[in-house]
Structure formats: C-alpha cells, structure tokens
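Exercise 7. Predict the joint structure of the components listed below.
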Amino acid sequence: MSRLLVILRLARRDLRRRPGEAAMLVVIVAAATAALTLGLVLQGTTAHPYQATRDATSGPDALVTDFPAGSGSAASPAALKLTVPLARAQGVIGHSGPFPVAFPVLTVDGHADAVLAEGRSSAPVAVDQPELTEGSWVRPGAVVIERSFADAFGIRAGDRIKLNGRPFAVTGVAVTAAFPVNGVGFLEGSSQWPNPGLIWTTTADAESLATSQYPLGYVLDLKLANPAAAENFADRFDQGGYTDNTGGRYVIPWQLISHQDSLLMAHEQKILLVGSWLLALLATGSLAIVVGGRMAEQNRRVGLLKAVGGTPALVAGVLLAEYLALAVIAGAAGLLVGRLTAPLLTNPGAGLLGTAGAPRLTPPVITLVIGVAVAVATLASYIPALRAARISTVDALADAARPPRRHARLTAYSTRLPVPLLLATRLAARRPRRLLLGSVSIAVTVSGIVAVLFAHATLAISQSAGPAVTANPGLADVGFISQTARENQVLLTITVMLVALAAVNVTFITWATVQDSRHATALTRALGATAGQLTAGLSAAQLLPASAGALAGIAGGYGLFTAANQGASASQPPAWWLITALLGTLIAVAGLTAVPARLAARLPIAATLQGDGT
Amino acid sequence: MQQEAVLAMLAKEPARAYQLRARLDDALGPLGEGLNAGHVYVTLSRLERAGLVMVEEPGAAPAGSDIKLYSLTPAGQERVFQWLSELNWPKPDLAEFHLKLIAAAAAGLADPVGIVSAQRRELLHRLHDAQQAAMGESADSDASLLLEGVVLRLQADLRWLEACQRTWASRRNDHRKGER
Amino acid sequence: MTNSALVQARSLRKDYGRGDGLVRAVDGVDLDIVSGERVAVMGPSGCGKSTLLHLLGGLDRSSGGELWFHGRRIGQLSERALAEMRRKEVGFVFQTFHLMDELTAQENVELPALLAEVPPRAARRRARDLLERVGLADRAGHLPSALSGGQRQRVAIARALVNEPVLVLADEPTGNLDSAATLDILRIFESLHATGQTLVIVTHDERIGATADRLIYMQDGTFTDETTLVGGTRRSLSTLIELEDSTGE
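Solution:
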C-alpha cells in the first residue's frame, strides 16, 4: 500500500513539474478520443427513424392519393366516389380522410416553392396525425409546415408566409410518416415545381386555395389488417402502378415511403461513414504521435526516477500512473466533446422523429473510447519503462537512447540551400517518422476537404436537374433544396472537425519538434543564426512535409469521393476551390507552426545550452 | 640527488664527463639549463673522493679534463642498487611558509594576505614559464614528463595558496568586525 | 577608450531572479582587452566567469553597465546584429564541446561558415584546412561519437575559427579533458596566440590560467586580483627543480 502511495506521490510531483507538457498531452488525446467517439456514434446510426415516426404519428399502412392529372381537370366527383369506398375495402381496418389537398405556391423571404396543402380538422385523427415538433396545430389562417421543408426554407413557428399571394401565419412544425422526407419521384407536380413540400391547413383554407389551374385533390390514409402485405393491397387497387406519373389515383404502400426515406438516409449515412473513418484515421495518427513522440524526454524522466532510487518496477508504476491519469481525464473530455458535437451531424432526417443519430453514448462506445485512451497510456508508458529496466541510469540521464538520424547526402545537399531552408531540411530529417506522421495527417485532412468539395459541387450541379427514380441513385439524383442544405451542413461539420483535429496534430508535432531541437536551436543561434532564420526554419520543417501531404490529399480526396459515390455521376469542383483549399491548408500550417517556432527561437541561448535540453 | 643520478648513469657502462652531461640534459630538457659542465665535474670529483667511482685511465690526461673515463666501483654499484630501491620522497616544504604567515600576523609586521598574494604571483610566473617549456617539448620526450610533474606540483601549491588566501582574508575580516 | 582595445567593459552587470532571489552573477566588472592579448579569468565555480564570457560573446544581454566590442556598443545591438556578431566576429569554445551529434567533424566545422553564407565549396575547404591545423585532417569524416574528448574539443576549436573571428572565447576548454589532451589544446592556443588571435579563456585550472598573458581572478561576480605574466625578466627554469645535493661538501 505504501508502495502505491510512493508511486502516486512521485507521479503527481512529476506531472506538476511539467504542466505544459501534461496539458498538451491531454489536449491531443482528448481531441483524438472526441473524434473516435464521433466516429463510433456516427457508425451507430443504423436505427431506422422511419419506424419511430410511424409509431408516433400512427402512420398509414397505405396512402391513397387522387390528384388532378394536369391543369384544369378537377378531381371528378366520380373519382372521389372511387376513392372513398376504399376505406371500406377488404383488409382495411381503419382510415382517416379523405383530406382535400390544394397546390398553392408558398412564398417566404423571397423563396418560392409549390406545396401540397392538406386540409385537416383541428381534432386529431386516428391514422396519420402529424406529430408537432414546434408550436401548435392548424387553425383558420394558420398553417403547420412539414419539418424537413421548414428546415430547408428556414421557417419557424411564428413566421408569416404567403400562399398564392395570401398571407398566412405559421403556427407550428410537424413530422409525418405519410410523406417521404423529400418526395423523391413520389408525388408528381408540374415540371416547374419538381419537388413540392408539404403543409397542413384547415379544411376550409385548403379548399379556398384551390385554383382553376390546380384544383383540389384528395388523400386517404388507410390502416390495414396486415401491414406487411401493404404492397399486395396497393397492387390490387392501383393498376397504373404508383410509379406512373400521369395523375389520377395512386395507392402507395408504407414500404415504398420507407424505402424512399432510406434511400435518402443512405446518402447521409455514406457521408457520415466516410467522415467517421477519416476522423478515426486522424485520431489514430494523433495517438501514434503521443505514443511515439517525446521518447527522449521520457528517457530522461526514467533516468531521473532511477537516480532517486527507483527500481524498474517503480519507474514503470510511476509512468503508468501519470499517463493513466492524463488518459482518463482526456478520454472523459473527449467523450463529452464527441457527445456534444454529434447532434450537429446526426440530425439528417429532419422530417423524421427519433432520427438516426439521437446520439446516445452506449456503454460499448464509452468502454471502447476509454479503453483506447487507457491502451494508449499503457503503451506510452510501457516502452520507456521497458527501456528503464534495460539501460543504466547514467545512459538514461545522458539520453543516449535515440540520437537523431544522420543523412549524409541530405546534409551535403542542404549546404547549397539558403540558411532557413538549410535549417529546415536538417531539422526535418532528424526525426523522419514524425515527419511522416505530420505529412499523413495533412494528407488525410485535405483528402476529406477535397472529397467534400467534390460532393458539394456535385450536389450544386444536380440541384437544377429534375428528380429521377433510378435503381441506384447517386448524389446527382438527390438534388433537393432541403436535402442539399442538410447534406452541406453535414459535410461542413465533418470538414470542420477534420480541420480541428489536424490543427491539434500539427501543433503537437511542432511543439514536440521544438522541444526536441531546443539544444540544436540554441547552439545554431550561438553559432550565428538569427532568431528569424530559425523561426523560418522550424516552420518550414513542418511546412515542407505538409505541402507534400496536401498534394497527396488532393489525389486522395478525389479517390475517396469516387469510391464513396460508387461510380455514379460526379462533377468537378472549380479549380480555384481546390487551389484555395491547398493554399488555405498551407497558410494554416504555417500559422500554427509559426507561433511555437518563434517562441523557441527566442529562448535565452546560454541557459538553454547549459541546461542541455531538459 | 645529483650524485646518485650520475652514479646510476655509470651503471650500464663507463662514460666520460661530457657524455654524462649530455644524458642529463636529455633527461631534464629545458629544466636542466642551470646545469653546466662544472657541476658534473664537481659531482664526479666528490664521488671519486667517496670511493664510489674511479677513473679508468688514471694519469692519461690532466685532471679536470673531459676525456677522463669514469666507472663505478663495487661500492658505487651497491650504492646505486640501494638508491634505486629507496622510497624517499621530497617533503613538501610548506611549514616554513605557514609559519611565516603566522609570525607576520602575530607580530603585526606584515599582512599575511599580502604575503600570500605575492607568493602566488611568483608561483604563477613559474607556472607560466613551465607551461611554455612544456609546450616546446614533444609529447614523448623524457623532459615533458618531468615538466608535467613540475606543473602539477605548482598547481597544487597554488591551490594551497588560494586556501591560505581565503582563510587569512576571512580572519582579517573577522578581526576587523571584532574591532568595531 | 584606447584605439587598440578590442573589448571594453565598464561596470558590467548581469542579474538573475528578482527580489529575494536576486543573484548578481556579474557585479560591476571593468575590463579592457587589447587586440592580440591572451587573457584568462579564473575563479571558483559560481563566481560568474562563465556568465561574463557569455556577455562578451553576445550570448546573453547584460543587466547594466557598458560593453564595447570592436568599437560598437553591444547593449544596443538588435538580436539580428548580435547574431551576426556571433557569426563573424566571435568564436566560442564550450566546455562540453556542443557538437551536433549527427554531423561529421567537417560538417560541424563548416556550419558557421554556411550560416555566414559562405559558398558551400569554400566553406568545406576552410573546414578542411582548419581541421588540418588542429591535427584532425584524417578524422574529418568521423562523427563526434567516434572521437575522443580531446579530439572533439579540437573540432570545436576549429569550428570557432572557421569565420576568422577577431575574438575567441573559451569556456573551460579543458574541463573535460585529461592531461595529454589539455596540452594539445594549450599548444593550439599557443599557435593561435602566435598568429595574433585575441583569446579570452575562462578556467578554474591554474595550469591553463598561467599560460595567459594576463590572469584575472574573479570572485562573487567581481575581479579580485590581476597578474601580468608576460613582459618580465625570464626566470631560469632550473629554479623549478632541485638538483643540488642536500649535503654539500
């Protein structure tokens, strides 16, 4: 027990002596675990949110729609006569409606789109009662907007809109399972408005919104005895097939709506999946840096512990205690950050409740993340502890374990470069593995950014194109306003996270490089290099591999996007986007490295030389 | 010392005075510059009188001549063996200086610190000269080894003088404090 | 200010810490060094002699007093100007050599020349010449780990000379060396002195200090004593050894 106390006391004293380094480690491990958490949570977005919405709203098993075939031809009372009896057809155990549907043009804040305005009573119905996520239900002069549509147009409860030029209030926002999130190839409209949205109004308001060009249609929601057989039911009563776009009556089974939803979700899921892998990659890189970096410093620490009488076991215990403490703190922080940022990404199906990423930190996720943090701590302390058992105290103190690498040809070549580049080359060559890690970090980040740019470009181009129901819709087929906005948001959030993690990586690598080369820096200044030359050299030592990484990232990003898009059509982003991304990355790296470089280059020379890099 | 050294040089084979001087010069290097021919002759005469050496060819040449060939007598040989196995070592003669400082302080005749400073200066000059000589010698010459010894002894003496300086200076300060 | 004074210090001061923890490492030093002079500063450890050397070489800034080097006031020089001074006018030799482990002897020596933007080939030639001068021509391609302490220090001296500085500063140059290596270093300094190089050597070893033209003692940040060791009548060396017999006849 007393051994344990000694270990803890030594560990605490050791940590207190180097608060900066401890803080740096916590930051990078926290960032890595946050990314890891995010990745894991995103990957867990398998739950199908459609089911939750269906349950909450008593979604219909089959939807019967009766829409005007074209302008001017009203839904004939005869057609209505055909529709209504379906409510009592064989297999139907419940129904609501038929509800009148008008097709006004909604304008708000300069945007305009056609909508289906479904007329409802203020009393709730048995089948398909939309679930309010905001505000209250319809009343005369006030409408409720479907949530994904509201998101796309930025409409909130309390806003004012115009329908066919007439002012209406928005009293609420709701979700429903009777309308796919963006109506892909489901509800036809005129070619001018390929993607109508959905709103609910009072019955009277809906009827008043009918025009001669677009007279009323009707919608009937059915509950079946055998929901699983809804497709058969639909086939029985809809000879035209619900994929036929010629108007008239359609019977749509819930499975089709669900399928359409999942198609949309599939895109988001793909983006999230790719994003999560990128984040995990970067996180792994960060952790590798933590484990592999600062070995020299750890050796000296080992030497000091041995010099005060520590056995190898004691030394191992102290190191492990230190790293574990840091890792647990960092892991918890990372979990928290991941938990807080996950909602930014995982609210894709805005039109659906209980969406895929209601981010839950399930016990498996927590265990895995903390486990990884602990594993990193163990690994980081195991290697120097092993060395402690082997080498003598004197050697450890003298830090004889890992001298910098020598590259004869590179050194000879560097003599021809101007001074800052000479310093940069030699500094970078001292630790080639760290150089590689830094380069790879940038490459991964830029890959992510470039893939996002490709995705964005493809989405933008396809926005004007009409929808097409294909067997395997690519991003080009998903060109709806709300979908685009949502996907752009997801892409942006992932990009921001990648960039943040990469920034942490670069900062840590720079800091580690600066620490390692403190003696060499001081000596070079003693021999006559100016602080400015050394700042430039330290910065360039990071910038050169970052440039290589960035260039590789462009190719990698293109490959990543192509693979994720699975061969569907894609469009290229404008060249200046890519150039901006490239230059932006380099400028960011230069900025991140400049500050620690400058600080290092201005340390007092004599003190550093005599301290010999402690 | 010189007597025994000369004796030992004759142990291998008889030699003439000038040869002995040459060997001594070699061994002592620049430190032997105070040694002149006269010293060697005087030493040889003494040794002859003491019966430790003898002249090989008496009467062949006038006395004091360079050409006389000297050799060891049996007594001389024994003295050489004895000398080689002696463990005498020159005592450091610090007592005199030590007493000098104490006497000066006690009688109030001079400031011990000043005496030490002056002595230090003298030794520094000697050390300076010794180092100059040492640098002029090649690394493996006999004389360089001797010079190394001289240098080290001077260094040791200087360190002791520094200690004397510290001690006597602090005594002086205490004394002054006491006076106030 | 005499014309031939290369270095001049007046009331030079260097403080560390503040308040109770204030340490006056150099506490009011006056110093004049003439071109071509070889000066040694001796004192116990902690007396401030290394700090003084750092101030003279521009490795550190003084806390007070004036320092002139080569006619310029050092206290007012910018960081960049100081760096240039260190590069071209001052050569520093450290006790622990401070060679770059991953560079060969030659690459170590040529480094200050490269920093001074000497063309690479010229720098390499200078380095080779200097290594020959210190007797290490055959070890030019060796790493420091393959060299003995004395050899490493000789490389360090060569490096200090590569830009032909007007002033060479040596901080305990033989502190880590044995007697034979010490003598080698002293010989090199002797040859430097013979070519008119100005030298300031800090040491705690009397054997080194006594080789100087002028030996200054330092204690607690100030000079306590000064001895001029050249330009006097030369003593006979034989006074150094005892040749006479104890019993004269």
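Discussion. Chain C is about 30% helix and 25% strand.
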